Amino acid sequence: MSIKSVESRRHRVVVIGSGFGGLFGTQALKNADVDITMIARTTHHLFQPLLYQVATGILSVGDIAPATRLVLRKQKNTQVLLGDVDKIDLEAKTITSRFLDRTTVTPYDSLIVAAGAGQSYFGNDHFSEFAPGMKTIDDALELRGRILGAFEQAELSSDPAERARLLTFVVVGAGPTGVELAGQIAELSRRTLSGAFRNIDPREARVILLDGADDVLPVYGGKLSRKARQQLEKLGIEIQLGAMVVDVDVDGLVVKDKDGTQRRIESQCKVWSAGVQASPLGKQIADQSDAEIDRAGRVLVKPDLSVPGHPEVFVIGDMMALDKLPGLAQVAMQGGKYAAKQIKAGLSGQKPEDRPPFKYFDKGSMATISRFSAVAKVGKLEISGFIGWVAWLGIHLMYLVGFRSRLSTLLSWTVTFLGRGRAQMASTEQWVFARNAMEQLERHEREKEAAEKSSGGAQRKAAG
Ligand SMILES: Cc1cc2nc3c(=O)[nH]c(=O)nc-3n(C[C@H](O)[C@H](O)[C@H](O)COP(=O)(O)OP(=O)(O)OC[C@H]3O[C@@H](n4cnc5c(N)ncnc54)[C@H](O)[C@@H]3O)c2cc1C
């Protein structure tokens, strides 16, 4: 089925994704003489940098994931469609998306592809069953259920070895997400849950932060990495570096150290934050054009963020590879705004070859370690400790979308950081088990379909 976006014959822009790149690109086209269709597989814009706070009970889903439709309600040139894009046709200039059993084909004149990246298990996708990543709301809620569920199970256990396994939390990947999550699991166990159990002391929980690299926060390096490490250790987090995960199962993981020895860590709750893989839509684009993709599946774009041979197609944010730019929200936001500007300039007659190259303005990056403690790097300036934390608070509040989100987040932070309570401590079994159950169901359906196909083929062969 083909649907009409907005009734007119204006220039049609399709934006794939409602994340940082997609939303900021769309908003930058607010006053442009274009019709925009934003297609995304979720109904919300997600502020990923605070996902770990949903996972550890500080923030609610609504604080960090406003409904895209409501954010764009007043932008009259934009229609928001829910759908999983599974086909980009560069030749026909159409996008095919699906929602349940409904297929929608949307034509475009200009396309902004901002479908982001997913978790990468470096070819070991089966690890995900026992060590979920943290990329979506579902991931964060599943993790919250797993973390809190481990404490609940430990309270019920009288076997010391089982208790130790249940109270050992392993975070794989010591980049900003891993550091922030490990810090918050430690604070949860040491502060929030302290005194709330009768058979266990949650403060005794082991939190292990593990990475194959030689440092925590290796992107910062030097003094900041050292400071981060000190602050993590002060919280009682065990840091294990130069350690590669070679297997994960329901009860733990196997780690290979630099000297080649393998050891096992018994742990019920494992979290994966070690790598990213760009949306498979990148490969589709590369297969239909002169573009190439890198090992992380990102499209090697031209300096104007367009796809070689297709000046009307922009690939931005976590999906693009250009000048070794990092996968950061600012890169996606600035890319979205830049693409919008080029589309507008094109309407005024600018030729693609006259486009100025995309220039990223580095506003710095930061990671919180715990309450009152963060590290930040802005240009040559390196900040850590309380000042870094205050800067982190201000910047995150500024970039949250919507006044309501900012207000409720500020309230939740006041409760959590000044007191020791957390408002979002609910979890259900479904949050923990639904993903694996759904994956099993999908696998079963695929196997059934394949079996039906092959038995149909065999019957046709026999009949012929
Ligand atoms: C846990 C975590 C913490 C982070 N912390 C920070 C931080 O502190 N600072 C920082 O700068 N950056 C941080 N980042 C990185 C930052 O969030 C990303 O760089 C940024 O979100 C990239 O924006 P994007 O628009 O490219 O992709 P995303 O924001 O990921 O958006 C992708 C969009 O595409 C949609 N989509 C995907 N596939 C399809 C499809 N097939 N069909 C339809 N829609 C699709 C998704 O639903 C989503 O709406 C963090 C990321 C994570 C996961």
Question: What can you tell me about this protein's structure?
Answer:
Its cofactor is FAD. GO terms for molecular function: NADH dehydrogenase (quinone) (non-electrogenic) activity. With 464 residues, this protein is of the alpha/beta class. Among the domains are: 3-41 and 83-119 and 277-354, FAD/NAD(P)-binding domain (3-Layer(bba) Sandwich); 125-274, FAD/NAD(P)-binding domain. 37% of the residues lie in helices and 24% in strands. The chain contains 13 helices and 23 strands. It has helices at residues 20-27, 51-55, 61-64, 68-71, 137-156, 160-166, 176-192, 222-234, 281-287, 329-347, 385-399, 403-418, 429-463; strands at 11-16, 34-40, 78-82, 84-89, 94-99, 102-107, 110-113, 117-119, 168-172, 206-211, 237-241, 244-249, 252-256, 262-266, 269-272, 276-278, 299-300, 306-307, 310-315, 320-321, 365-370, 373-378, 381-384. It has a 6-stranded mixed beta sheet, with helices on both faces. A 4-stranded parallel beta sheet has the order 11-10-9-15. Helix 1 (20-27) packs parallel to helix 10 (329-347), helix 5 (137-156) runs antiparallel to helix 6 (160-166) and helix 5 crosses helix 13. The protein is globular, with a radius of gyration of 24 Å. Flavin-adenine dinucleotide (FAD) is lined by residues 16-22, 39-42, 48-49, 51, 84-85, 114-116, 134-135, 176-177, 279, 281, 317-319, 327-330, 332. The site of flavin-adenine dinucleotide has 33 residues, from helix 1, strand 2, strand 4, helix 7 and helix 10.
